[in-house]
Design goal:
The chain contains four helices and eleven strands; from the N terminus they run βββββαβααβββββα. With 246 residues, it is an alpha+beta fold. The strands form four sheets. It has a five-stranded mixed β-sheet, with helices on one face. The protein has a two-stranded parallel ribbon with strand order 6-7. Strands 8-11 form a two-stranded antiparallel ribbon.
Length: 246
Amino acid sequence: MWVEAWSPEYGTSYGIDAPDPDASEAPGAAGAQAVPAEDVPWAPIAPAAGELPPVAFLDGVSRVDARVFLEAGGELVAGLCGSVGVGAMKTNGTTRFGATRVHRALVMPQGQHAEMPFVSQVLHYESRQATGPRPEDTRFALEALREEREGLLAASLAERAAGWELPAAPILADCAYGDDTAFRTGLRRLGREYVLAVSAQIGVYGPETAFAVPERNGSVGRRRSVARPDAAKLLADLLFEAEGTR
């Protein structure tokens, strides 16, 4: 395995991750345009008078540090070394920065494994595998690591904030958090209200859904103990059904 000296911002010098030439001709390649649902006159909004309640913001960023290549079975396999940083800040008229955490990973495509030599704790890259064999899957895996670390930091901050003697306010987050069942469960355990976005491909259960522990198949194996739903739908399907009934 070797690390490429070519700057990762320019792709790879071997053209492994070259874009599909037909992609620009695909439908919608020019980009989607947002159309407002109704005309709303623009006007400035005057802030409320008095002391502002504290608000915490959390976000993360990822960066490809270098491209790496592995010779496996006579083929050249592309991976990456990447860094992920997550942090938080709190503001109520003055801004204070809170916890900041940096994680580094060596990501290889599915079915491939490599390890970086240990240099120091600061520059340690943990080995990870992508969920697919394509070079772009390694980039998706790095983004998944960012979302994972953001969720862990958010859960830690939510638990700390539960002990503050402050008026409780809903926690707002995008689908990177809303799709995380463990994160939502943790907020419910803390008794915190939340408004989280979810992706259209997440499974949802209507009020008519029944949960039951299924019978064991045959006479061998352990008895099942986890309740399963009798039906589930994708959120996108429910939205389409709702649109059709209007």
